[in-house]
Amino acid sequence: MNKVNIEELARTEGSSAFALTKSSRCISESVYENLPEPLNEICKNFEGRERDVVFLSSIGVISSCLPNVEGFYDRRMYNSNLYIFIIAPPASGKGVMNWSRKLVEPIHENLIKESRIKIKSFRESSNNENGEKPKVKIKIVPGNTSSAKFYTHLQESEESLIILESEADSLSNMLKQDWGNFSDLLRKGFHHETVSISRAIEDRFFEIKNPKLSIVLSGTPNQVRPLVESKENGLFSRFIYYYFEDVSGWKDVSPNGNVNSFEELFVKKAKEIGSLYDKLKEYKRVEVKMSPSHWTIFQLKMKSFDDTIMKTGKRGFVPVVRRLGVIAFRMIMIFTVLENRNRILDNENELVLTTSDKTLKLVLEVVDVLIDHSISVFDKFDKKSIQLDMQERILMADLPKKFKRRDGLEKAIKINIPERTYDSILKKLIKKKAIRKLHHGSYEKLI
């Protein structure tokens, strides 16, 4: 494989691909051309927004199916768990997220089946008076579960759990419950921090060490409000957001409309995920590492995001950028494991996997898109915020307080913004009151 150009990958491009229309942009075609299996075959059966939704929801589901996979980031070990939120209006096509559930259902069903066999054996045993009754193990936590029951499931689980809901109201209801602090659990669960809670009324004490939780949700803009309102306590910054306002048109639903059976496709791919999951459970540990040159690329990229946000005065968004680094690293872990699936199936005990150039490039391209979606969601519910996409912010960060059009154009060209696009951006920045026109060809930044 050709060596990845560090400067090319690490640079936060200002190309027209960054421009947001009414909805945020789609994930680039080059990402889908380089996906590892089983994601490649899954995604090629979809297109447009539906493909993006299936892709993100699938990696969210897979993030909960990689036991004993670890990676070292910022002086601590992380597992691969992701929190994902798909936001779109009704009739937009976001419902295809439900197909990703098929990938984890066999694992969930097998855990329940094994638990019931153990419970039955325990009940039928004549020597069970001093023994502890086996617990019911699950993988998918129902959306209408009470906070108290959720704590129980997480405490009794030996691996990752997943909340997988197509109606985000379920999470909103959990956040509103009085029992315990569910928001605190989600925040600490993201970093695998110990969660403790003591309740005098029920005389119960919970201490959950190294909790592992993945979340995949979809919902309408109104349903995201409880999460958006959590910006101050940090829950908001722990999610990947994918936001769009497109409403899909009628599609051919006849038998001739699509010769591919999604049911068969996902059942087949669930078996592949299940085999990988079963094998990983046999390992003591599978560690994912990046080379020093890859860390250089990664950190330059994330620093460029961080610097742009800081220079354009959006300090409230900085926690989102910082945690996007953790999220990106977890995605790198997932893709590295999938890329090395055959190697994992052929080995045992312990294994160290090194990230490839291809995987790093793929993840950084995805992150380029996701940061714009996060900004869109962050700004949508903040009436005081001046809403700028990353392309506009990159340019604003490079401009002095007062500037001439020609000087600004030189900077724009350096970050791959064409002249026509540059002039369009200037008009938008004036309209958004981010800059003002002093006189012909002269401008002043207001933020």
Q: Please mark out the parts with pLDDT under 50 across 5 or more consecutive residues, or reply none.
A: 13-22
Strand numbers in spatial order across the main sheet: 4-5-8-3-9
**Structural class designation:** alpha/beta
N- to C-terminal distance: 44 Å
What proportion of the residues is helical, as a percent range? 40-55%
Strand content: 5-15%
C-alpha-based Rg, rounded: 23 Å
Mean pLDDT: 85
* Outline: globular
Largest sheet: 5 strands, parallel
Helix segment tally: 17
Tally of extended strands?
Answer: 14
Could you give the topology of this structure?
Blueprint: H1 6-10, H2 29-32, H3 39-43, H4 48-62, E1 69-73, E2 76-78, E3 83-87, H5 105-124, E4 140-141, H6 147-156, E5 161-165, H7 169-176, H8 182-190, E6 195-199, E7 204-208, E8 213-219, H9 225-228, E9 240-243, H10 262-282, E10 285-289, H11 292-311, H12 318-339, H13 341-346, E11 350-354, H14 357-380, H15 390-398, E12 402-404, H16 405-414, H17 419-431, E13 435-439, E14 442-445
Parallel strand pairs: 1-10, 3-8, 3-9, 4-5, 5-8, 10-11
Antiparallel strand pairs: 1-2, 6-7, 12-14, 13-14
Helix pairs in contact: 11-12, 11-15, 12-14
